[in-house]
Amino acid sequence: MAEHLKLAGEWEGGSVTNLDEILKILGVCFMVRKVAASIKPTQTISFADNKMTVSNPKRGEETIPLDGSQFEGRIMDKKTVGSTTVDDAGVITMRGKVGDMDLLTVRKLNENGQMEFTMIVDGVESVRIFNRK
Question: Which residues of the chain, if any, have pLDDT below 50?
Answer without folding.
Answer: none
